Amino acid sequence: MSAYMDKHSSELDEILQKKMEIYGVIGICGVVGNLAARVLMDHGHHVICTDLQDSDNCPFLYTLTKYNTPIYLSNHPESFFKSSTYIIPPPSLSKTSELFQKIRESNAQLMEVDDLLEEINPDKPVICISGTNGKTTTTTLLKHFCYMAGLKPTEHGFMTLQGNVDYIPPLQCRLNGDVAVLETGTEGEKGDLKFTLKRCQPSCGVITNINPDHLNDEQNFMHYARIKGELLEELQGKMLVVNSDDPTIWGLLSELDYQGKVVTFGVEHSPQGESKKVCWCRREILIDETLTGVGYYECQCGLKQPTPNYLAKNIKGNNFLLQTPQEVIEMEMEITGLHNVYNALGAIATAHELLNIPLKDIQKYLKTFKGVPGRLEYIYQSKKLDLIVDYAHNPSGVETVLRELNKTYDKLAVVITISSESGPIGDSDIIESAIDNANFIIPASYYSRQAAGKYVSSGKIKLTHKEPDKFRNGTLGATEEQLVEGLKKGLECDVDAVVCIGEAAVKFKDSIKFLIDSDNIVMLKR
Questions:
Q1: Of 225, 258, 197, the residue nearest 131 (C-alpha)
Q2: What is the residue range of 112's domain?
């Protein structure tokens, strides 16, 4: 018998004596089961939980420490089935499995996760934030504004999990709190964002930008943009906060005939370069870029960059003048980069328009925001060298980060740990973005090494002594060892800064810190 079973048997006896309805949750060690149990308990229901995993293999038990509920691990005891009024299995449980048949044969009523979501509706404003880049920073900053204003955002509480797809956001928005600020992502398949959004019942949506992984493929680009457009479909008649410097977003409102309140944000026209994007009329639009894929644009079909409701002017370093229809106010950020000005604008507009937080208060709160770990995170700084990690994992994200760093550093080396979601074409795009924006490129992952082969003659590519073995897990394209080898090569370059790019750079950043602490970074740079 599990220690958890012994610990909570008296609690179950007490519940049974009161003859209360009991919700039995199977799969408490999984993300969905864990959240479902907490949602039920936050709404005053009595819950008992079970899982076949033992406590050593149940990674999220810490989220349940404040709840007083029976938890049965290592098996599904008969008492669980006999005691439960309702039983909620994980969505992944096969309908033909023995366990599912056992639920059917018990006296308990089967309750699917979707049944739970229909029974318990969100009782607070729900804000869904989507886009290609900047979702995490915009979400975290908006939560920061809420906390500072005395509002409690719902938190899924999983320390090692981003949690922006499938059932996680819909369950998260039903946890205790005053407001739900949800990062909502997509796996790139039609309907997957809609699946999440429909269950979240959003009051407001934010779209940061739309830049697919491979910008030159028109068909995939429009398909991807329409997936992001599923947010508009779920917010008809409600409120949408959008980056109107992005022609894809601004055109999408007309394409889908969006009817609702639209709040726009953007920056003063100060082009950094040029690019092309496909308009919804299928013509190519020339963009005077401020960042990748956004800036000033005007198409023959009449699509034209509007004057944003929230406009950042006179941008100098981390300071800018915010112009709204009602007032002009100076803003100062602790985080750096033009991309973070855009992120701040989306959060500011939403906090002010939906949550009615005064701009004077937002001005104070913005100064205290330190940023998101893994986004332009400085691991080491000295007079001679800075070492940075960033999570960027697609061509537009890499280009944006490197462009921003180019404004600060004369000589820059980039260690690439990415395996692009769009395969060899995306890997090649990432290398090209790096070549255009860095002095030296170290392809640390197998796939970046393959993509870099034809550019070796440029003199910018620096190869590690050992060719990386093939490894891929989503966008995680490098192992810990490959990252460290790439960093060592980067430290051999005559540069002012080395930035390690990709999921592996963030996942294994403790190894970077260890390398610095144990091997004296000055010696490594010789």
A1: 225
A2: 3-119
Task: Say which CATH number the domain at 257 has.
Answer: 3.40.1190.10
* Contact call for residues 237 and 260 (beta carbons, < 8 A): yes
pLDDT digit string (tens) for 408-448?
899 999 999 998 877 888 899 999 999 999 999 999 999 99
As a three-state string, the secondary structure of 316-336 is ECCEEEEECCCCEEEEECCCC
Polymer length of the chain: 526
Helix (H) or strand (E) holding 273: strand 273-278
CB atoms within 10 A of CB 67: 14
Residue with tokens 């260690």: 415
> pLDDT digit string (tens) for 140-180?
999 999 999 999 999 999 987 888 889 999 999 999 999 99
Match 């039903």 to its residue by tokens: 174
Picking from 371, 374, 382, 437, the residue whose alpha carbon sits closest to that of residue 404 is 437
- Select from 367, 393, 414 the last residue of a domain: 367
Residue with tokens 């229909």: 118
Q: How far is CA 458 from CA 311, 440, 445, 462, in A?
A: 40, 10, 19, 10
Predicted model pTM: 0.87
In the chain, the number of structural domains is 3
Return the H-helix or E-strand segment holding 288: strand 284-291
Is the residue at 278 inside a domain?
Answer: no
